[in-house]
């Protein structure tokens, strides 16, 4: 895997597979972790503590709330409002600026949209 595909792999892992994103030191470490998790998933899915739920994450999940609070422009007040309208990270990341503006206003909506769409 090359550097150019690493962000796409991270997005795929969180949004498509529903897994928790863990900080890793390198692409190699990330690749090994994903392979290990997929292999474990095929053995016993219920014993994989890192595998997220296939359905939308609930607002009551503290890890989801903390994650959304870390998005630039979003804090403890705006995060719950966003999660009421967009109950998963995938829905939030796919929201248009117009949809976000209805919840948090224009400036913060642009920050959120840029966070999810601009390459890092």
Automatic annotation (TrEMBL):
Gene3D superfamilies: 3.40.50.10130, 5' to 3' exonuclease, C-terminal subdomain
Pfam families given in the database record: HHH_2 (PF12826), PND (PF17949)
One GO CC annotation: Fanconi anaemia nuclear complex
All residue ranges annotated as the DisA/LigA helix-hairpin-helix motif domain in the record: 71-119
UniProt keyword DNA repair, yes or no: yes
Keyword entries, A-Z: DNA damage, DNA repair
Gene Ontology molecular function terms on file: chromatin binding
Gene Ontology BP, a term: interstrand cross-link repair
Fanconi anemia core complex-associated protein 24 pseudonuclease domain: residues covered: 1-39
PANTHER family given in the database record: FANCONI ANEMIA CORE COMPLEX-ASSOCIATED PROTEIN 24
Record protein name field: FAAP24 isoform 3
Source organism (scientific name): Pongo abelii (Sumatran orangutan)
Lineage: Eukaryota, Metazoa, Chordata, Craniata, Vertebrata
């Amino acid at each position: 895997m090359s550097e150019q595909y690493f962000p796409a792999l991270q997005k795929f892992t969180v949004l498509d597979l529903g897994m928790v994103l863990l900080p890793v030191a390198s692409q190699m470490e990330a690749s090994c972790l994903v392979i290990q998790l997929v292999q474990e998933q095929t053995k016993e899915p219920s014993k994989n503590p890192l595998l997220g739920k296939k359905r939308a994450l609930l607002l009551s999940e503290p890890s989801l709330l903390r994650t959304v609070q870390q998005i630039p422009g979003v804090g403890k007040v705006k995060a719950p409002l966003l999660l009421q309208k967009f109950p998963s990270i995938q829905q939030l990341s796919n929201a248009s600026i117009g949809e976000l503006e209805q919840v948090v206003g224009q400036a913060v909506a642009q920050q959120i949209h840029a966070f999810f769409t601009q390459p890092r």
